[in-house]
Amino acid sequence: MNARIAAPELPPALDWVNTDAPPTLAALRGRVTVLNFWTFDCVNCRNVLPDLRYLENKYHDGVSIIGVHTPKFEYQRHSEPVLKAVNRNHIRHAVANDPDYLMWQAYGVDAWPTLAVIDARGQLAALLPGEGRRQEADALIAHLLDEAAAQDARVYESGVVALRPEPVTPLRFPSRLVLGESSLWISDSGHNRVLECTHDGRIQRQFGSGNPGYWDGRAREAGFTDPQGLALGKDVLYVADAGNHAVRRVRLLSGNVDTVAGTGVAGHDLTNENLDPVKVAMSAPADVAVLGDILYIAVSGQNQIWQLDLVRNKLVVLAGSGQLGLTDGVGVTASLAQPSSLSVIGQQLVVADAASSSVRLLRLLDNRVSTLVGTGLYDFGDAGGKREDARLQHPLAVCGDPRGLIFVADSFNSKIKAINMRSGEVRALNLPYRLQEPAGLALGAGALWVANTNAHEIVRVDLSSGQIRRLTISE
Fold this sequence. Notes:
By secondary structure, this protein is mainly beta.
């Protein structure tokens, strides 16, 4: 952008979720300011956050980052879940919620995510839409800081940290669950670890050091970053290590952790049967499922379902063109929208297709994708009844019962719903308990187990009595 214009000031109507001292562009003169336009449901927005942390650390004495949360879903118009998302993603700069799109319109933004870079004199230097712009943003910021220094307009001082933390709890944003005969495994995502517990919640083993990282090792010596989906194989626990853009394997007999797919950094490679799966870069795998010797991977950042043959060590795309959408079809002719959870029922996969607020079916005999509930990327709500009338809002988990019932964590409605696969009827479970953005489900031992994510807890719903019990997680 050659001819710069004055950047619009931050309007007073913004709701600052994690600071009592809202910043102003006028007060930030002398520094380069980066506005991050994002929405917390968007995987591409989450992929940008490591770039922002890199820039904050590199230019701590010259750059201020400000988050402008512009919601897609009705649920996100409220600031409480936005603060939860800020804490879940370890964001330490000031974040404003802008439900009326005031800043979006003032800056002419038209896509999530977008970075607006403002120079030291308060002029808009560039809009950078999309993820993967770290190198470009880095070079631009360096140029603008040098420019300000040459004009004697640069201010050298550290930025202000914005923090409104969660309470200290045994779990921090637990996301996914898998149930064994006597064990319950929990993705304790906010603590960057996977826990193996008894059904009563007593911790038996921990996998992952608790610090974000990417390294193999035994039990606590391994490193995970924001682990999500879990699947139980033959003496093996598979983990969708979303923050490391990889799929990890925990050998349950020894506790050793290694990597079966992904490189540890975000990428959008095409799968290749002749390439070692650990050399294929992927984007934000959200869940995994096992059927026989096949591992299925919901690659949410690429809007696809991948298949890893565990015997031949071959990785292929099973379904999804890669384009964000809601289109039925066979294999890559279908389109998915941020698939976030997988469940196996017979010879088909049930898929929570979060960004389209839908539940999809993938028939494994011919890779045909069909839609069970849901109608479009921006068609969401909170309604039961016939499948054509039912509406969900960003579902993050599905769990199939062999009898033909699918339980859905209707996350942004903070409800659990059940879909009858034969009739297509959808109903909400009438639970006398407050759920807060549930993101994980498991069936077993006569109960439905729920990761009540934003409440930092696991609850057990007795399917015969409807009684709910909160698990006490302890050593």
